[in-house]
Amino acid sequence: MKNFCLTLLIILNSILGLSQSLTIDIPENHFKIDETNSLIVSHIENIETYNDVTGFNEIIISLNQNDYNFNSMPTTLEYSDSYLITETNTTNQYTLYFTQLPIISIETPNTIFDEPKVLANFVYADNEQVLISNIGIELRGGSSQSYPKKTYDLEFWEDDSGEDTHNVQFGNLRSDDDWILDALYNEPLRLRSYISNKLWLNIHTTNYLEDEPKAKSGANVKYVEMFLNGNYNGIYNLSEQIDKKQLKLKSFNGDIRGELYKGISWGASTFTNFPSYNNDNRIWSGYEIKYPKEDDVTDWSNLYQFTDFVMNSSNTYFFDNIWSEFDFNNYSDYFIFLNLLRATDNTGKNIYLAKYQSDEPYFYVPWDLDGCFGTIWNGNNENITNDILSNGLINRVIELNPNNSSKSISNRWFEYRENIFDNTSLAETIETQYEFLLNNKIYEREALVFPNYSFSEQDLSYMLNWLENRLTYLDTYFGDILSINENNSNNNEIFLYPNPAKDKIYFTNINYLINKEYKLFDFSGKLIHQGHIKENFISIKNLEKGYYLITLNNEAHKFLVK
């Protein structure tokens, strides 16, 4: 009704030539004012209602009963614009932005340290809820603590002391008392970590999902805009934690069942070092024990034995037992994911190693996914696309190829390439997120409060070009593995994959085939298309389901379109 009445009023004003003042009330907690930077970030209800405000001669923004006038009358109010406004009866001017994102405000008189957590007041507001609570807050991260924009760990407190905590929920994220505000400062486009976390959850589920239907394979995230002590701090990922609760690991009951270790540096975590351990210490050779809790037990023996197995067992014993010690589906997805992103810090340092219960295999959980898609940990570009990331475990699996795992993983790669890893799909995911941040003026606001933030539109082109080259390399890498499985004698033998296929059909020996003619026939022998080989695939998006023949170098090959 509000939308209809306002629209009708604008139409009548236009028809009758009336002058009219419009006051837009913004409730408390749905805006924040940064006095230092003369900046206001605000929600606005039903912004589409104001797509034409030319019928008004005055528009007043009322922020908790303080009124502000536009310096220049806008014709429309949009998320994709900014507005100069002046506080009524003063000369105080501000740049006003409307945001679609939740707004978080944190206020504390205390200095925020690495640890322990200090008391602060927390306010969260979006279109669905306003949440006000005490929190404990501390700095999080290693080298990132030197950045002007900090990452924080939050715990929601019932009182001022933090002796009692309480769970909170934000949108479709989990209900919990422990949260991360990830600053994204070292990401040139503020989207790599967001996209990567979503991508992992999209491709991978835990192998025990039937027993634990609420278990997640990683952390989900959502964007928020954050103010600290009245100062705008920019966009953050509000992130779930990787912990026993997220993974639904079995509880300690006097015996160790569920296990969780966090990779914090290099060593045993990459299966490159194997020192003795000390059960008086929660840290060992690149790992930190996260579960069982210190109050339960500190015992490195299970992880020590697994590391010993990976690094020192005989080839025969490793070959026969690796997939009972480590979950194969998780290994496959993580190897593919790690190398798609080329996440150089995530081979052992930014990784969790977990076990659901004592008789189950270990598995990986990624975290801190910022140095990827052509950048490294400090945000610098590293334009390398033609390598494979690994660690000691991965190297041994590649070398021994137990149960012909390389073929299974390669087939899985091409299955993903048919949908979620399709060039167009991945590019659209990146471009959509980029356009959202750009059009909502996020990059502009970041640059206002962090003058050394050097946003450039060229960063998007770099990321997309890097991804295209990376996909081409990985297609060749996995295609060669399949070719080796099918071709043991003739170096010029051609192999098609995947088969069945959906959008593209790939083939091996591209150097042999390049610029040579191909012809595509339906199964009745009708010529459908012909051309010359320019890449290691041809598109079959427009083909109906069924069997087809393709001639490559005068040899016919059958494939199925599914």
Automatic annotation (TrEMBL):
UniProt KW keywords: Kinase, Signal, Transferase
GO-annotated molecular function: kinase activity
A family per Pfam: CotH
Sequence ranges assigned to domain Secretion system C-terminal sorting in this UniProt record: 496-559
NCBIfam families named among the record's database cross-references: Por_Secre_tail
Protein name: CotH kinase family protein
UniProt source species: Flavivirga spongiicola
Lineage of the species this protein comes from: Bacteria, Pseudomonadati, Bacteroidota, Flavobacteriia, Flavobacteriales
